[in-house]
Amino acid sequence: MAFKKIDSQGLTLVELMIAVMILAFVLVGLLETYIVCLELIEISKNTSIAINNAQAKLEEIKNYSYSQIKTQYNKVPFDVTGITGKGVTYAFYCNNPSDCSDSYPQTSLLEIIASVSWKQKNGKVIGEDKNLNGTLNVGEDTSPANGILSSPAEILTLIAQP
Question: What is the rounded CA–CA span in Å between residue 40 and residue 21?
């Protein structure tokens, strides 16, 4: 009786387990990429909403006279719509050219900043206002330490005295 050599065309168990492990790593990587993309989409959407709220606050400020703006809007928190967050406006004079940007070396300028911080669905707060109260608390003014609650959703404008 002659033995025939068996030509195996299938996969061994070890080869199959290696292929499954490689596939698992690839799928986990793709899933992680998908989750990060969803987080970035949420940040982008919320940033647009925050910028719109800051712009609306600046439009409101335009209705006040130059002499009223500093007293009405310096370090004043405001509510935002569409996201869980808080905004704050700052108004300060830029009378000394060294305090102004090089692009605006004029005197009697009023610098207005509208800054909005908010909380993402995952609980992460975007901006320096970590407790979302619109007030600068100890430990919130991190980088740069400039005395304001900075945020990626921040608009700055200069108003000249008429």
Answer: 29
Q: Does residue 22 form part of some domain?
A: no
Q: Supply the range of the domain harboring residue 55.
A: 39-160
Q: Is residue 11 part of a domain?
A: no
Residue 79 resides in a domain = yes
The number of C-alpha atoms within 13 Å of 7 and in the hemisphere containing its C-beta is 0
Burial 12-26 (b: 16+ CB within 10 A, else e): eeeeeeeeeeeeeee
CA-CA distance, 9 to 61, in Å (whole number)? 78
Convert the pLDDT of each residue in 83-107 to its tens digit.
999 999 998 876 544 455 545 444 5
8-state DSSP, 63: T
What are the pLDDT digits (tens) for 104-130? Answer: 444 578 889 999 999 999 999 999 999
**Helix/strand/coil for 89:** strand
Q: Evaluate whether residue 30 is within a structural domain.
A: no
148 contacts 136 by C-beta, under 8 angstroms? yes
Q: pTM for the whole thing? A: 0.76
